[in-house]
Amino acid sequence: MNAIGSLMAALTVTALSGFMTAQAQTAEPEAAIVPGAVWNDTEGNPINAHGGGILYHDGTYYWYGEYKKGKTVLPEWATWECYRTDVTGVSCYSSQDLLNWKFEGIVLPAVKNDKEHDLHPGNVLERPKVIYNRKTGKFVMWMHIDSADYSKACAGVAVCDTPTGEFEYLGSFRPNGAMSRDQTVFADDDGRAYHIYSSEHNATLYISELTDDYLRPAGRFTRNFIKRSREAPAVFKHDGKYYMLSSGCTGWDPNQAELAVADSIMGEWRTIGNPCVGPDADKTFFSQSTFVQKVMGKKDMYIAMFDRWNKTDLEDSRYVWLPLSFEDGEIRIPWRDKWSPDEL
Ligand code: DGJ
Q1: Residue 12 included in any domain
Q2: Structure confidence by residue, pLDDT tens digits, 233-279
Q3: How far is the CA of 198 from the centre of ligand 1 (A)?
Q4: Which of ligand 1's atoms lies nearest the C-alpha of 126?
Q5: Which atom from ligand 1 is nearest to the alpha carbon of 181?
Q6: Which atom of ligand 1 is nearest to the CA of 127?
Q7: pTM for the whole thing?
Q8: How many domains does the chain contain in total?
Q9: What pLDDT, in 10s, does the model give residues 133-157?
Q10: Atom 9, ligand 1: which residue's CA is nearest?
């Protein structure tokens, strides 16, 4: 190599290493959960995973949620507050400690070039949840798919061989022939899984067993909280009992949370009151339930996950995660300004 060649090579290496250093730089590690603050990922960007849920798989927590990017609009034909952002897709973040989250990318992207597609930006994609099927070895995502005016009321399903995508979208339908909006999925210890969704114009909550591959309803379902208008369901199991946290139906505005308990996932469900404790507990700390995640390796320790919606700037909606504790047989979700799963 001549002198000019060596100089160019040295410059390239310097430039490249500078670039690589910049790329590898990560944000300061997070030491605490601060409900309602802007939470950054390990690259220092705000975490964008709304209406989300967590899958724990092989020692890693994966957080999936709505990637709400861009302007929030209220369509000019709106007769109610159906504020929305264009569908961008479902994001995924991974973590070992539930504090520091690495962005894994958009694992189910919007489909921009097909107006008829469920995942077209002009539609609605909400509350994605992922479960792992031990039999098929597949990761299965269920989500709420809707038209911009929320009249489609369907559930969508996507599948992948890995937790970090890209998921293959299989389509949408009305499970058991009934409307499906706010929703979650729950995989039980025996391998059976269930789809839990607000139906009948959000008046009644359906719990529907899934087929062995988790891709369709198996045909057995129950109607719960009949005409009690529950949405934002989050289901967890503790000491052989099933618990469900949910909200009332007030659009993007907060209302009082409610906890219910059952001996069988299919019901009967018995309401046991509002578990939130502290200032603004009657408004769920200005947030709405989305998921309850067990802290692995810690006995009786769960995190209740809520969204604090900012209806006129949905991208800037925040996360309110709080410890859910079992005290003297009672379940409580006390407000904390700042806390860490480690300190409990
Ligand atoms: C409340 C639901 O829980 C949200 O996911 C969203 O669908 C809003 N309603 C829309 O108003």
Answers
A1: no
A2: 999 999 999 999 999 999 999 999 999 999 999 999 999 999 999 99
A3: 11
A4: 5
A5: 7
A6: 5
A7: 0.92
A8: 1
A9: 999 999 999 999 999 999 999 999 9
A10: 251
